[in-house]
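Can anyone check this?
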Amino acid sequence: IRMSVGVDSVTRVSLRSNPDYLPRGRRIIACLGDSVGMDQQEIDEAKLVLTEACANAITHGSPQGEMDCVHIIFRAADGAVMADVTDFGGLTDPPDQANSASQGFGVRLMRMLADSVQFIRHRAGLTVRFTKYAKHTRRIEAPIIEFTQRN
């Protein structure tokens, strides 16, 4: 996939609820990650988070199997990639954020690799929203150094 990405780029994709379609989503997030300056490790981490979110949507949020779709909205802006992975059935209760023991390994992995992960319940299912920043854009407060010239 070749993509031309501008500021505040938004891409919408619907994939059949079948793992065979996941490489398409991974290629899109890799292109977006590259466009915001992510290194290869950051791109691989974003791809893994997307894969876990989609796998959960396919496994738990697709009661009709391949008749269902997983909808993904990708965004690239301000040195970050963001994705909303939405399913329309099955698991409607977000994982318990306070009790990590109740979370599956995939949810814990998403939380470890992404800078932000949210689970948003809606009437028909669940949306997993995550953000991954490129290292160079992470906001780190640097001390202010003033130089004065002596005469």
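Reply from J.R.: I decoded it. The beta strands are 9-16, 69-77, 80-86, 116-122, 125-133.
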